[in-house]
Amino acid sequence: MGSSTYLTFLWNLLFSVLGLLILAFGIWGLLDKESLVSERIAHLGSDPMLFFVLVGLAVSTISLAGCMGALYENICLLKFFTGGVIAFVILEILGGLVLYSLRHQIKGSLQNTMLVAVLRYQDDPDLRFIMDEVQMGLQCCGVESYQDWKMNMYFNCSSPGVQACGVPASCCLNPLENGTITNSQCGFGALGMEEFAAQSIISLGGCAPQLSRWLHSHRGVLSACFVFLILVEVGGFLLATKLLADLAFARARGRQPGAW
């Protein structure tokens, strides 16, 4: 085996692991929301976590083909891998251009989605999952402020239920009880408190401005990661192309592909 064979194999092994991690994250999301139970399986196609499952499957499949192609110096598998990498690079560049050109519309769309998630929090498990992850990840509450949860019919202070005047546990500064179990009632009554008292229990700031600040402060890092990902994929493509050229040269000279 030549150096291009080893490098191509190691490159694809790394991305195979990455693809499996993405796949595992998607499956975890589906299981966490119980999207795979028989009552909800019909709505699986609209589940956002399915995107991670499909991407993870695609990345791991293409990378595994590259691994096997490099290990056994199989031309068909290597060509399949290079075609897959080209498709990924094109889709990523097009996706990046679309996201950048429509960034203002996307910002408004995200804000509207969060507003819908507040209104339908108890009725839509997908929106509830997304809103909880955003609120816990960014340490925020509501869209513009924690007061937005008054728009939810269950959290509104006029509601007769136990959740009246409350906010979801994902708004709490410390939602875990004893560090392990989520205290689902930690936000109860927060909307009826003065801000000074509420700020010791929940996050007061909204998720829309917090998300905007996070994206603005990390735009350089995100751009660098995007460019780095493209360069790494192009590097893998060039390694596989070099290996294919070496195999073609070996065959032209009448040697076995693995005899170096």
TrEMBL record:
<keyword id="KW-1133">Transmembrane helix</keyword>
<feature type="transmembrane region" description="Helical">
    <location>
        <begin position="49"/>
        <end position="72"/>
    </location>
</feature>
<dbReference type="InterPro" id="IPR000301">
    <property type="entry name" value="Tetraspanin_animals"/>
</dbReference>
<feature type="transmembrane region" description="Helical">
    <location>
        <begin position="6"/>
        <end position="28"/>
    </location>
</feature>
<feature type="disulfide bond">
    <location>
        <begin position="141"/>
        <end position="157"/>
    </location>
</feature>
<keyword id="KW-0325">Glycoprotein</keyword>
<dbReference type="GO" id="GO:0019899">
    <property type="term" value="F:enzyme binding"/>
</dbReference>
<feature type="transmembrane region" description="Helical">
    <location>
        <begin position="220"/>
        <end position="240"/>
    </location>
</feature>
<feature type="transmembrane region" description="Helical">
    <location>
        <begin position="78"/>
        <end position="102"/>
    </location>
</feature>
<comment type="similarity">
    <text>Belongs to the tetraspanin (TM4SF) family.</text>
</comment>
<keyword id="KW-0812">Transmembrane</keyword>
<keyword id="KW-1015">Disulfide bond</keyword>
<dbReference type="Pfam" id="PF00335">
    <property type="entry name" value="Tetraspanin"/>
</dbReference>
<comment type="function">
    <text>Part of TspanC8 subgroup, composed of 6 members that interact with the transmembrane metalloprotease ADAM10. This interaction is required for ADAM10 exit from the endoplasmic reticulum and for enzymatic maturation and trafficking to the cell surface as well as substrate specificity. Different TspanC8/ADAM10 complexes have distinct substrates.</text>
</comment>
<dbReference type="InterPro" id="IPR008952">
    <property type="entry name" value="Tetraspanin_EC2_sf"/>
</dbReference>
<protein>
    <recommendedName>
        <fullName>Tetraspanin</fullName>
    </recommendedName>
</protein>
<dbReference type="InterPro" id="IPR018499">
    <property type="entry name" value="Tetraspanin/Peripherin"/>
</dbReference>
<dbReference type="InterPro" id="IPR018503">
    <property type="entry name" value="Tetraspanin_CS"/>
</dbReference>
<dbReference type="GO" id="GO:0005886">
    <property type="term" value="C:plasma membrane"/>
</dbReference>
<keyword id="KW-1003">Cell membrane</keyword>
<keyword id="KW-0472">Membrane</keyword>
<comment type="subunit">
    <text>Interacts with ADAM10.</text>
</comment>
